[in-house]
Design a protein that fits this description.
The protein is mainly beta. It has one helix and eleven strands; from the N terminus they run E-E-E-E-E-E-H-E-E-E-E-E. 5% of the residues lie in helices and 33% in strands.
């Protein structure tokens, strides 16, 4: 069962004419974010390079929520293009433009055109931890084993 939450969105001037992010299917978790690069001036992302791609959107999340910027699997699988800081976190108190840091792990340059779907945004509830200093931690079977200690 999915729950709906209201998120205010402001379209910045360089996003005029672009549709708002949308879910592509009824059960999709992520809204597709679009590139708000100038019409007729695509951004070319060379192999091995990064770019901060504007979306032309700012949002107001309700308290207790975050938005995560995640890669689109098709761009990663077909072109080697992914979100560098995946998932990128948008906090509820952030009011600036959402920008997507893309990296091209592919072998060829990748051209990003206005209105192209470049990432997805997932809105999720946040639980904040209350950290409690202790002298020692409880024992577990795993203990301090990490980084592949339980298998490959």
């Amino acid at each position: 069962m999915s729950t709906k939450v209201t998120v205010e969105v402001q379209r910045l001037p360089h996003a005029d004419g672009l549709p708002l992010p949308a879910y592509q299917t009824t059960e999709a978790a992520g809204l597709d974010l679009l590139a708000a690069v100038p019409e007729g001036q695509p951004l070319t992302l060379a192999a091995g390079k990064t770019a901060m791609v504007p979306t032309g959107l700012a949002i107001a999340l309700p308290p207790g929520f975050e938005a995560q910027v995640r890669p689109r699997s098709g761009l990663a699988a077909k072109h080697g293009v992914t979100v560098l800081n995946s998932p990128g976190t948008i906090d509820a108190d952030y009011r600036g433009e959402i920008k997507v840091i893309l990296i091209n792990h592919g072998e060829a340059a990748f051209v990003i055109r206005r209105g192209e779907r470049i990432a997805q945004m997932v809105v999720a509830p946040v639980v904040q931890a209350a950290l409690v200093p202790v002298a020692s931690l409880s024992e577990t079977d795993r203990g301090a084993g990490g980084f592949g200690s339980t298998g490959r």
